[in-house]
Design brief:
Blueprint (H helix, E strand, L loop, with lengths): L1 E3 L6 E3 L8 E3 L5 E3 L10 E2 L6 E2 L15 E3 L6 E3 L23 E5 L8 E7 L2 E5 L6 E4 H9 L4 H7 L31 E4 L7 E5 L3 E4 L3 H10 L2 H28 L4 E3 L5 E3 L6 H14 L1
Length: about 290
């Protein structure tokens, strides 16, 4: 359920919290979760305004045919023809809503100039899929939501599982092998990284625009997260920081046993690294990273 913060007027998702529990807005205000309204889970009919179950195909009050589409701002479900989003209030037009199966302006970076990506609504998220190589483009504003969505984990795994992927396009041209590819949004070369450092899944991402997953990569990442991969990554990074802290403290002890100053070739005194404070700064910054 979405509620409005009285301090900053932004929408706050209460998630699975029960009425009476406290949810914190990003501005810092603590808000008590109210009782759900009687129309919770329903959408407004674009013709008569009645509250209707989104699963219905026809309004039970005015017999208007109903089709569910998505708000382009918050990705909430709305009935096609609605003037405003029920969830965030965004003004809607026929051209702005997101339909399952829509062809986008993005070209598949793996198949290059051949197929445009198609919108595929998965667990409420508009993900773009290439119809040829089945690669997936997930925009920056929803990629973290996909990673953290435990409630829809099975649906996301099923939708991102590898199907029969051909090695050539329907035109007969070969699909580009693995390697650096261009961002579908800005056209610049994307960065490549091993997700979570230890997953073994190499993904392509463009900061500020989104992440590209070749067929089956998002599936493998979700399974990596489900198996506790991110927690193991955090633990391993903490162990690495602890090892570096021990090394610096050992170096500090050795330096403390040396004279405070040494002489250079000109006979001038040169302070050692610890005396200058650099060692202490390194240790304090490491401690801050370990404890955060």
């Amino acid at each position: 359920m979405l509620i409005t913060c009285a301090k900053c007027n932004s929408h706050v998702d209460t998630g699975d919290l029960a009425p009476g529990e406290i949810v914190k807005c990003r501005c810092g205000l603590s808000i008590m979760v109210p009782d759900a309204p009687v129309t919770a889970g329903k959408l407004e009919c674009p013709n008569c305004g009645a509250s209707v179950d989104p699963a219905h195909k026809v309004c039970e009050f005015c017999n208007t045919k109903l089709a569910t589409v998505m708000c382009p701002k918050c990705f909430g479900a709305v009935f096609e023809g609605s003037k405003h989003c029920n969830h965030c209030g965004e003004a809607l037009t026929a051209s702005s809503v997101v339909h399952h199966g829509d062809k986008t302006d993005h070209v598949c970076p793996r198949c290059e100039s051949h197929p445009n990506l198609l919108v595929e609504v998965v667990a409420g998220y508009p993900i773009e899929r290439c119809p040829e190589c089945e690669g997936l483009w997930v925009s920056e504003d929803i990629v973290e939501k996909v990673y953290s969505d435990r409630q829809n984990r099975d649906s996301l795994i099923a939708a991102s599982s590898k199907k029969a992927v051909a090695s050539t396009l329907s035109s007969g041209a070969p699909i580009k092998p693995e390697g650096y590819i261009k961002c579908p949004e800005c056209g610049k070369m994307m960065n490549r990284t091993n997700f979570g450092r230890f997953s073994g899944v190499i993904i392509d991402f463009c900061s500020g625009h989104g992440t590209w997953y070749d067929a089956d990569e998002l599936h493998r990442i979700i399974e990596f997260i489900e198996a506790g991969g991110l927690e193991k990554k955090a633990q391993r990074e903490k162990e690495e920081l602890m090892e570096e802290l021990r090394r610096l403290r050992s170096e500090q002890r050795l330096n403390s046993m040396k004279p405070a100053n040494t002489m250079n070739s000109m006979g001038m005194p040169v302070p050692n690294r610890i005396a200058s404070g650099n060692g202490a700064l390194s240790i304090s910054s490491l401690l801050a990273r370990i404890l955060k």
